[in-house]
Write a structure and sequence with these properties.
binds fe (ii) ion; 18 helices; 3 domains; mainly alpha; two-stranded antiparallel ribbon; Molybdopterin biosynthesis moea protein, domain 2
Length: 408
């Protein structure tokens, strides 16, 4: 018997033990022969390793010799710049570096993000140059919470509410209801038969997952318009969604009970940046320039430059919207998970953000990977091989979800 990473599993091998999902539900019994459909379902549910009778030897094809050397060197150069503030000696980061080169090579992601045009000649890099960049918190008009979230929370918190009551609230927004049904019927969940009503979706998937989807979709909809010269909404959404998906998969592998909460935390982790882009575009533009000039991440200089960081903004926003602290903590501390009351959950979002930035799955404004807390590896207990497998699953799920969420 041997455990085989899902991305190396081949059709035709025999399962040596039962495979169960995070909730202990039997997915496939011992003795069955693995098919392509089984592999697809394992991916959807984030199963990282499969026990099989004859352990397969890892046979990663050596594509290096088939690669265009010039393009490969350019890709490696780009990735080195992106990793400039990260110690690549750790085996996990070394594996992530290689995955970043492979993915960016394959997808032609050679272009560096961040402002390309030079700063004006008279621009002074000195942070005390007198430019009006500092923003007082009182200047920031935080948007109101989407109405549906408070209505929804009221009905969910009522112990007498039925799945019909919950569905009725969501159905008040027909476009949200239609989108939710598409998501629950997609490969993201992988149910064999069609779920044709929200009430049924609530009873099958459960209020926790529906709640996560209602909250995250409603909030992302608030920020559907952004200054185009600063950030592309679709690209930002891709970064957010990829981080949510990877956080959810890592939480499942760590056997955490609230995988849906990690999905929402990952999805909303950079929501504070959207406040910059939307309400303070001039300062945000300056911030992006200065990050690139100084070689620091945007996160590292935003407090000095603007007086407040995107995670502080997120903290105020989530408090104003009365979202649970357990959700907010992983967002507020996603750059410094060791300071979170729950460093494991914050560490998962931190790890996911680092990985998504490395591979260039979307973009949130950072031109390099923000600093990584190395203690995260032990804290979240995810081996490098498992992270690579989780990234592969994320890319697969991302294609499905991204297509659905273009309708936001
Ligand atoms: Fe961030
Ligand atoms: Fe991010």
């Amino acid at each position: 018997m041997g455990l085989v990473a899902l991305d190396q599993l081949q059709e035709g091998v025999i399962l040596s033990e039962d495979v169960r999902d995070i909730n202990g539900r039997l997915m496939l019994s011992k003795g069955q022969q693995i098919t392509a459909n089984h592999i697809r379902i394992f991916r959807i549910w984030g199963i990282p390793e499969i026990p099989v009778d004859a352990p397969q030897r890892s046979t990663p094809a050596d594509h290096a010799s088939q690669k265009n050397t010039e393009k490969l060197l350019k890709t490696e150069h780009t990735v080195k710049k992106i990793f400039q503030n990260i110690d690549t000696h750790h085996p996990g980061i070394a594996a992530l570096f290689k995955a970043a080169v492979d993915h960016r090579y394959e997808k032609d992601l050679l272009v560096e993000f961040g402002p390309q045009e030079p700063l004006a000649d008279n621009f002074k890099l000195d942070l005390s140059s007198g430019l009006k960049t500092q923003i007082a918190f009182s200047e920031i008009q935080l948007p109101e919470a989407p109405e549906i979230i408070s209505d929804y929370n009221k009905v969910v918190e009522d112990p007498l509410s039925s799945s019909n009551d919950i569905a009725d609230v969501v159905n008040r927004s027909p476009s949200l209801a239609a989108l939710l049904l598409k998501v629950v019927n997609s490969a993201f969940y992988g149910f064999p038969s069609k779920i044709d009503s929200l009430a049924r979706a609530v009873s099958i998937i459960g209020t926790k997952d529906i709640n996560a989807l209602v909250t995250s979709i409603s909030i992302m909809r608030l920020f559907h318009e952004m200054p185009e010269d600063l950030i592309d909404v679709a690209t930002f959404r891709k970064h957010s969604l990829a981080c949510g998906l990877l956080s959810r998969i890592l939480a499942a592998q760590r056997k955490l009970p609230h995988t849906e909460r990690l999905f929402v935390s990952g999805l909303l982790h950079d929501i504070g940046r959207l406040v910059w882009y939307r309400y303070f575009p001039e300062q945000a533009k300056l911030l992006l320039y200065m990050a690139k000039r100084t070689g620091l991440s945007v996160y590292e200089i935003e407090k000095e430059c603007l007086g407040i960081s995107h995670v502080q903004i997120a903290g105020h926003l989530l408090k104003k919207w009365k979202l649970p602290l357990s959700l907010a903590n992983s967002i507020v501390y996603h750059h410094r998970p060791s300071r979170s009351p729950d460093p494991c959950e914050a560490g998962i979002v931190h790890m996911a953000d680092i990985a998504i930035n490395a591979l260039g799955l979307g973009h949130s404004g950072e031109h390099i990977i923000p600093r990584f807390e190395a203690a995260t590896w032990d804290r979240i207990g995810v081996a490098p091989g498992i992270l690579m497998s989780a990234i592969g699953q994320t890319i697969e799920q991302l294609d499905v979800m991204e297509a659905l969420l273009t309708e936001l």
